[in-house]
């Protein structure tokens, strides 16, 4: 949960758009698809937005790997993957666009679960 607050703080602190115009979190406080898409678009010309996107995606990747390792260390049935987890901006944007093609739904759709599910799918995990 601290990571979510950190990313949201980065989203607001690094914003060159007035907060009233910035994409919002979901009504449940999750990072929305709209926020990620906005940051990815702004990252092309805004160093702070670029840093935010990198931090967000790195956090997802690292946390997913650690959660799998910790679960297995505690006796959970191992997850078998045929490929490696990889994540970058283009992969995340493609996953979000495919999962939620209707932009009207972006503000109420949590981005992180979609990205994690895509990592497992692309990794051939079962």
- The poorly predicted ranges are 1-20
Tell me, briefly, the overall form: globular
Instruction: Provide a count of the helices.
Output: 5
Query: What's the rounded overall pLDDT mean?
Result: 85
Beta-strand share of residues: under 5%
Rg (C-alpha, Å): 15 Å
Count the beta strands. Answer: 0
Secondary structure: helix percent = 55-70%
Multimerization status: single chain
Please trace the helix and strand order, writing H or E for each element: HHHHH
The first-to-last residue Cα distance is 26 Å
The largest sheet is:
none
**Class based on secondary structure composition and strand pairing:** mainly alpha
Main features:
single chain, 126 residues, 57% helix, disordered N terminus
Can I get a quick summary?
This protein is mostly helical. The protein has helices at 2-13, 33-42, 47-73, 89-99, 111-122.
Please describe what this structure looks like.
With 126 residues, the protein is an all-alpha fold. Helix content is 57%, strand content 0%. It has helices at residues 2-13, 33-42, 47-73, 89-99, 111-122. Helix 2 crosses helix 3 (47-73) and helix 4 packs across helix 5 (111-122). The longest helix is centred in the middle third of the chain and has 27 residues, at 47-73.
């Amino acid at each position: 949960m601290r990571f979510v607050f950190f990313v949201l703080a980065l989203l607001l602190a690094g914003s060159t758009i007035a907060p009233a115009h910035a994409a919002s979190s979901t009504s449940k406080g999750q990072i929305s698809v709209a926020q990620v898409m906005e940051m990815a678009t702004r990252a092309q010309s805004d160093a702070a937005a670029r840093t935010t996107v990198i931090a967000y995606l790195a956090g997802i990747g690292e946390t997913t790997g650690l959660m799998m390792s910790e679960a297995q260390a505690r006796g959970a049935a191992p997850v078998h993957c045929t490929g490696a987890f990889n994540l970058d901006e283009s992969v995340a944007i493609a996953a979000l666009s495919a999962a939620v093609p209707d932009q009207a739904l972006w503000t109420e759709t949590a981005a992180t679960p979609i990205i994690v599910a895509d990592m497992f799918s692309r990794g051939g995990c079962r």
